[in-house]
Amino acid sequence: MSFIQVSDAFITKGRALDTYFKRDWQVSDNFENVKRGGDYFIVTMPSTFTSIRVDAHHRQFVWIVLFDLYIRYKTIAGSLRKFAEIRDDILEHYHSDPLLLNTPGVSDVIVSAAGEVLQNLPGGNPTFYAQTLSAAITQRKKLVF
Q1: Residue spans of beta strands (DSSP E) within the chain
Q2: What is the number of domains present in the chain?
């Protein structure tokens, strides 16, 4: 059972959105990469999971991958529209591949908002709009005795 397995597949899948993510480091589990430049970022982190026994030989997990979506702030109207556009594209990108790049046992990916869209420096001179989202990834694993 591996959160790492589904998290790595989630990151790899995100990197394929190359309209937004020109470099692999723009989709990662490293917050430091946001300082490297670029206009769009996804930074993942582990979160909760559920686990239920399906039958005598299988267990089903729902792994939650939290991820912060960042877009560089340019203007209020332009940046918010770009934010909505990339978020729509992310939803379509992940929901159109419920097997998550054929990751073993994965049968569904559901992306949801887990927080408000925020500026990193409210009332000041913001550099990013950001929102925390979550991906619930369902994976069935064979029990090993």
Answers
A1: 27-28, 40-55, 58-72, 106-113, 118-119, 128-142
A2: 1
Bridge partners, residue 132, by sequence? 68
Structural domain of 125:
3-142
**Position 51: which residue type?**
S
Beta bridge mates, 58? 55, 142
Angstrom distance (rounded) from CA 17 to CA 136:
19
Report the C-alpha gap between 116 and 97 in whole angstroms. Answer: 26
**Placement of tokens 């869209």 in the chain:** 117
CATH number of domain containing 94: 3.30.2000.10
Strands (E), 5-86: 27-28, 40-55, 58-72
pTM: 0.92
SS3 of residue 54 by DSSP: strand
Identify the helix (H) or strand (E) that includes residue 19: none
Confidence of residue 76 (pLDDT cuts 50, 70, 90): confident
